[in-house]
Predict the 3D structure of the following.
Amino acid sequence: MRREIPTFIALFVGVICIVQFFIPHRPFGTLVDTFSDWFGILQAFAIWLGALNLLRVSLERSVAKKSHDRWYGIVVILAFLLITITGLFFSGGRGFQLAGTRFDYLYVNIYTPLSSTMFAILAFFVASASYRAFRARSWEATLLLLAAFLVMLGRVPVGDTLTGFFPDGYRLSDVASWIMTYPQVAGQRAIMIGIALGVASASLRLILGLERSYLGGE
Amino acid sequence: MPPTEPTMTRAPFLERMMRIDRRVIFLFIGVALIFPLFFDISQKLPVSREVQMAADALEAVPDGALVLFSCDYDPPSAPELQPMAVTALKVGLRKKWRMVIIGLWPQGPQQANMALRTALEDEQFKDLRLTEGVDYVNLGFQSGNEAVIQKMGSDIPTTFPRDYRGIPVGDIPLMRGIKNLGNFDFVVNISAGYPGTREWVQFGVDRFGVRMISGSTAVQTTEMFPYIGRQLAGLVGGMRGAAELEQLTETPGRALKFMVGQSVAHVIVILFIVIGNAAYFATRKGKKGN
């Protein structure tokens, strides 16, 4: 029964959700609204579960004396406690995100610049990776290199400056736009259709109980 | 059989050009990105079709319309997406839209607040006095990803029972009469990934027929291109798209300023790629010659 009941729930919810997509009326619409509420509640618990798990892992790491990562664990715990306690108890209750609260101060002045910095580092790695990866070693690599070259140059004003003597519609920005609009979209559509078919078949396997790995065990 | 690295038979200079230390590249990119920030350089950008469509779609939304802003991003993506949010909000303030803000990402509503604060600092809005709950409302974050959009299609007050200050939606003047997504004239989605534009297209647009534009990070812009036209009324992609939108809506901001650095950085990356390939071909030629 430990496997049959969850499988039946998956089957019931899955079928209702599919039917509701085509018949959005009672009782299917109401049922799916209820399922959405349940999903939201489950996900809210999952967020807490994730946060507490992060805390547990960091705690284990920080008490392990020989671990080189212990300081990272300590920083995670301190940051977690700082932002949680500030948000819950020292930022005016429900309106903790309002401008001027202590939580908002931490968010704007610490979290935002730190996160943006982490993301900005990508610019440096992408530049270095492009230099190493874009080598015309084969026909396919040359094609990729050429497309990247044209799009990168066409997406900045200098591309049009270099090809300013070309007639309108044939400058680098137009070439970049053409690559993005036609060959790129064709490839994307193929990938999307492939993914959609894969998702549909995987979902059907879940709904019909053929795929049970999410229940754990064998 | 995979192609192999050619044997280095030419001068060590070519070898060095093929293996430039990444710290040298970092230095060049760093200077390229930082240097333009100290100068007030402006450049006119050629406008792409998808951003022109987005600007036209925003312009077509009537004054006083009810517009939903779904801010589905967090600070790491803010350098790219925050300028778009600010520009869209500026257009909204100029056209006196009634704006409802939500977030499918926990940090989204706070990013929207920051964007609104930035928009209101603009000279053209300095005399504008907005009343929260009447002119705009921030309903905050709701967990559930695409299920939230699905639920909004049938019942918004039960999806977002309170705004982010904790005030029940029934007590918010702007929310009176709003039942579901069908009540909105337009949706602006600023997205950094999942859940975001793709989910809004699948559930909000295809299912409930909302009219929408999307602002997305440069890395996911290519995935959104197939939706342009039918599902998306326009697409603003990355810093470049944000700069174009600022130019088109005549609300110059940070994106236009940052584009100078991005332009120089692109040129530097291309130069490094050219150097690497030139050295690669020169060494390969040397190998064939031997």
